[in-house]
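re: ur question from earlier - yeah i can do the single chain one, its not a big deal. heres the input i used so u can compare w yours
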Amino acid sequence: MLRAFSTAATGMSAQQMMVDVTANNLANINTNGFKRSQIDFQDLLYLKLRQAGTEVSSGLLAPSGIEIGSGVRAGATEKVFTSGELVNTGKPLDIAISGDGFLQVTMPDGKTRYTRDGALQTNANGDLVTTTGYQIEPAITIPVDATDITIAPDGSVQVTTPSGTSTAGNIQLATFINPAGLSSDGDNLLSETEASGTPVTGTPGMDGLGTIQSTFLEKSNVQMVTELVNLITAQRAYEVNSRTIKAGDDMLRNSIQIASV
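and the output i got, formated as tokens:
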């Protein structure tokens, strides 16, 4: 069997994966805080028929070798942490992070997850939670009789009640030395891995952390035009690889016809 069959099959599989990644990016184009993924490809092993520099005759070295590759594979899907568009919602509990950093979220099992989705709400206890209901960390409780809520750029949450204005708590942000190493868990949440490194927490606006923009939400950083170009490119590459298989099949058929004469 021609090597081109298996080589082209790896190409088709890789392009199909690129379509899958692009489809997920497009599906989340309106997801708060979503970061698009890009797929990185790697070539596979090579059959080395002749090494570069091999002596082809007395004192004469080949300037180049003969190597035949065996295809391509997906090396990684990497999240791109560029900022999304900030949209003014007018809601006092909506916040966007302008710059680096993630909100911290406490899961029911006590573990911490991280998100750029700042669509916060209050639960039945007055706790600040995500739209799914996970409590943000450190926990902040809004008094029942609060008549006004203001979140400052440094993350301090000021509440006004009939008895006056006070600070209900302070939102902290976390950063990672390698945010691309964070694991996607769904629900707009990311989790720490050995590749991401341990989180460094601090006050918004300090030590390189971004600031909090109240009444704004950070939208997805997916660019429709870019994704459509990627989609068309993957489709065309898939077609070309399928034609390679057809070309190989035609070559085999011709060889069989010659042998049968």
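Helices lie at 3-27, 224-260. not sure if urs matches, ping me
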